[in-house]
Amino acid sequence: MIAERTEYEVSTDATRLDVERVHRWLSEQSYWAQGRTRDEVERSLARSVSFGVYCGGEQVGFARVVTDEVTFGWLCDVFVDEEHRGRGVGKLLVEAVTAHPTLGRLRMMVLATRDAHGLYEGYGGFHAIEKPARWMVRRATASDEARHGAT
Ligand SMILES: CC(C)(COP(=O)(O)OP(=O)(O)OC[C@H]1O[C@@H](n2cnc3c(N)ncnc32)[C@H](O)[C@@H]1OP(=O)(O)O)[C@@H](O)C(=O)NCCC(=O)NCCS
């Protein structure tokens, strides 16, 4: 357990995660991971530091950081159960990530968001990338999928 506020508790204990629920949130309700398979979710969790938020023994929030735990982290898959939104769970998650003894000291942590900039700016100290022209991204294409096959 790494943070507690009112009825909510944040934990990085991977064995507590409700993977079925996380998969449902991401694959059915998120705008960025529609259709992500259960196997893909499990493999992504195995390579991340995951944060779960719990209320009365039930998981109500999730976030994970893909990281080398020294220089770089990618904060992603931030999700709060619809019934618990607007009660500070998202803030609790972002604060827990940035207060984490290792992740809070990463040289750089990045994220992408459609509309929640204020959450990360206000409660995590994130800001827009200063020189976006220096950044590049590669996305897998249909031909990559065909070339490498399903993993
Ligand atoms: C975004 C989300 C994680 C916020 O969690 P939450 O528990 O509802 O948010 P909180 O109650 O902790 O409050 C969020 C704070 O960030 C601000 N905020 C900025 N952008 C926001 C957004 N798009 N949605 C919700 N809050 C937002 C709120 O105004 C609030 O700050 P304030 O109290 O100072 O006004 C949650 O709404 C969610 O899971 N949405 C669906 C998935 C999603 O969009 N995830 C984020 C992907 S980047």
β-strand percent reads: 15-25%
**Number of contiguous helices:** 5
- The N- and C-terminal alpha carbons lie at a distance of 34 Å
**CATH topology call:** Aminopeptidase
Name the helix and strand elements from N-terminus to C-terminus, one letter apiece. Answer: EEHHEEEHEHH
CATH superfamily grouping: Gcn5-related N-acetyltransferase (GNAT)
Number of strands: 6
Strand order of the largest sheet: 1-2-3-4-5-6
Radius of gyration, in Å, reads: 16 Å
**Class from secondary-structure proportions:** alpha+beta
* CATH class (first level) name: Alpha Beta
Ligand catalogue: coenzyme A
Globular, elongated, flat, extended or rod-shaped: what is the shape?
globular
Write down the domain tally: 1
Mean pLDDT, to the nearest integer, reads: 95
What's the architecture, going by CATH? 3-Layer(aba) Sandwich
The description of the largest β-sheet is: 6 strands, mixed
Helix content percent band: 25-40%
**Low-pLDDT sequence parts:** none
Report on the architecture of this protein.
- The mean pLDDT is 95.
- Helix 3 packs across helix 4 (117-124).
- The chain has one domain: 3-Layer(aba) Sandwich (Aminopeptidase), CATH 3.40.630.
- The protein has 151 residues and is of the alpha+beta class.
- Strand 3 and strand 4 form a beta hairpin.
- 30% of the residues lie in helices and 24% in strands.
- The chain starts with a strand and ends with a helix.
- The site of coenzyme A has 17 residues, from strand 5, helix 3 and helix 4.
- Coenzyme A (COA) binds at residues 30, 78-80, 85-91, 113, 115-116, 118-119, 122.
